[in-house]
Design goal:
The protein has 585 residues and is α+β, with helices and mostly antiparallel strands. Helices cover 28% and strands 29% of the residues. The strands form 8 sheets. Strands 3, 7, 8, 9, 10, 11, 12, 21 and 24 form a 9-stranded mixed β-sheet that branches. Strands 16-14-15-17-20 form a 5-stranded mixed β-sheet. Bound molecules: zinc ion.
């Protein structure tokens, strides 16, 4: 490609309202342009990178038995009503009415479309297992698009769907995806870790996320360096210290004027936070019989712990949680700042499991300025739900080995779900087993967002001057620069351009009439792995200059053997890329 003909332009200055390196560099290097909030166009350089990423994905999906299909983005709402997600998903879902008045959906994922195909195509256990996938556009009306391609509203995703007759089959396909995803990320030069995750709006029984550890990430991951336990903080568990069994003491009301926080309470009574019960009041929006109902949630954790809202929402099967207002708190018989589960009404009491084994806790008295000593679960109050609703934090004990947990920020670049029969039961995807009995197909779903992956690659591979794209996903292999000189220099650069291309090497050829400084800056910004400079100075030394984007040093290589030299360097870059180990914890 001649740069004089390249459609996109580089930008000298950092664009306004960009807070991440990947966003800045992809804009400046002319890879992407923004059309609207969370909506981007991919220009030729980015499209070439995406094509390469897609090629890797096709290879890996085919390698685990995937067959490519293509399912529509615009879908009738009926299938989403069948699974209930039409009602469960809030404003993130793009909805509209077609001219005949039918409810329509802009697909945010394709489980419903897959289930509809499966119930039409799959009759017998002999057709299973199966794996179908596509690379397709999705729409999620995210309220807070940010960080360029990291968090968008329209995006392209590789999504695949496994279909099995039994759970062992699902395990096999799930594990195959996990390995294929690791290979995809490694081949793209992106280090990731796989962590246990919330199943969220997908439902199902098991989920893992593939995280690129980075400070720009919005997810928090809990890691154990001792045993390798990793989980998204939304679902991370912790080993909770148990209290020694002691006799339950009598309830005693004490005056605690003006004390409304656990910290003040501990100071006032000279006790540890672990000896207190903390009340958290939330309003949950739940779906029952396809209608939205609001429920008051009275959550109780020990004073030394925090409530994990994802765990709490899952425990009460809520779509959303929000903090309750003071008047809502008073309406169930509790008092803000002095809340106690004793004597509340019209609330769903959810108690962390640690509360049930912690005797003689100090809790609010549901009276302004009073607390109660020696509150004991079972004797003094009961819960509607006992669950693990505590947030894992730095220094908490690893649930597997008891060592100390650490937190890290991460960007989710892939996600895999064991859906089970959630969709096949709702949409009657049945197959006949060997005995002639109808059974629901067991499903898994798996996804990687392509734009976010490209952004994470840019985050990982750059320096102060610009991108340093890994060979596997770089738009071109070689950036060829012709410095302005006599006609012979330009003729020579043209010849090298033709020769390299004839040998299958992808070349971006800067044939523009720009100053050398501009050409070098653009080459660094776009960040192709190798740079060749044809200029009088190198010619006087018997060749052209060859330089790795990552290295400062360059060498002079003879023109006759330029293709051999480039191939040798590219071969080395391929080898380095495939030998990259995933980042160790
Ligand atoms: Zn551990």
């Amino acid at each position: 490609m001649r740069m004089s003909r390249l459609f996109s332009q580089t930008l000298r200055d950092t664009p306004a309202n960009t807070d991440t390196i990947s966003h800045q560099l992809l804009l400046r290097a002319g890879f992407i342009r923004q059309l609207g909030s969370g909506i981007y166009s991919y220009l030729p350089l980015a499209k070439r990178s995406l094509n390469k990423i897609e090629h890797i994905m096709h290879q890996e999906m085919t390698g685990i038995g995937g067959q490519e299909v293509q399912m529509p983005v615009v879908q009738p709402a009926d299938i989403w009503k069948e699974t209930g997600r039409w009602y469960q998903i809030g404003t993130e879902m793009g909805r509209f009415t077609d001219k005949s008045g039918h409810d329509m959906v802009l697909a945010m994922t394709h489980e419903e479309a897959v289930a509809d195909i499966v119930r039409r195509e799959v009759r017998s256990y002999r057709q299973l297992p199966a794996l179908i996938y596509h690379i397709q556009t999705k729409w999620r009306d995210d309220p807070r698009p940010r960080a360029g391609l990291i968090r968008v509203r329209e995006f392209t995703m590789l999504d695949s769907y496994s279909l099995d007759a039994d759970w062992a089959g699902l395990d096999t396909q799930y594990n195959a995806h996990s390995e294929a995803y690791n290979r995809i990320f490694r081949r793209c030069g992106l280090p990731t870790v796989s962590v246990k995750a919330d199943t969220g709006m997908m439902g199902g029984r098991l989920s893992h996320e593939f995280m690129y550890l980075s400070l720009i990430g919005e997810d928090t991951i809990m890691l154990c360096r001792q045993c390798g336990y990793t989980a998204n903080r939304q679902v991370a568990t912790l080993r909770k210290p148990t209290a020694d069994p002691v006799a339950a003491l009598p309830l005693t009301k004490v005056a605690t004027p003006g004390i409304t926080t656990i910290t003040d309470l501990c100071r006032f009574l000279n006790i540890q936070a672990a000896a207190t019960a903390k009340a958290v009041f939330m309003m949950a929006s739940c779906i029952e019989n396809d209608a939205q109902v609001n429920k008051f949630i009275f959550a109780v954790v020990r004073g030394d712990m925090e409530v994990n809202e994802t765990k709490l929402a899952n425990a009460v099967k809520a779509r959303d949680l929000r903090p309750a207002t003071d008047s809502e708190i008073r309406s169930i018989g509790a008092v803000p700042g002095y809340g106690s589960p004793i004597g509340v009404h019209d609330a769903i009491v959810v108690v962390d499991e640690a509360i049930t084994v912690s005797p003689n806790l100090v809790a609010g008295a549901n009276a302004e300025g009073f607390h109660v000593l020696n509150v004991n679960y079972g004797r003094d109050f009961k819960a509607n739900i006992i669950a693990d609703i505590a947030m894992a934090r730095d220094g908490d004990l690893c649930p597997e080995c008891g060592a100390s947990l650490e937190s890290s920020r991460g960007v989710e670049v892939g996600n895999i779900f064991q859906l089970g029969t959630r969709y096949s039961e709702a949409m009657h995807c049945l197959y006949q087993d060997a005995d002639g009995d109808d059974k629901p197909v067991i499903m898994g779903s798996y996804g990687i967002g392509l734009g976010r992956l490209l952004a994470c690659i840019a985050e990982e591979h750059h320096d102060d001057m610009g991108l340093c794209m890994p060979l596997s996903v770089a738009p071109y292999h070689v950036h060829l620069i012709a410095l302005k000189g006599d006609a012979k220099t330009e003729q020579l650069a043209d010849q090298i351009y033709m020769k390299l291309q004839a040998g299958g090497i992808e070349v971006l050829y800067d044939d523009r009439g720009e100053r050398p400084g501009v050409k070098f800056m653009d080459a660094d910004l776009i960040g192709l792995p190798l740079r060749i400079t044809v200029g009088e100075r190198a010619l006087a030394r018997g060749g052209v200059e060859l330089k790795h984007r990552r290295n400062k040093a360059s060498e002079i290589v003879p023109i006759e053997s330029i293709d051999d030299c480039v191939n040798a360097e590219l071969g080395m870059l391929w080898k380095n890329l495939t030998s990259v180990e995933m980042r160790n914890l």
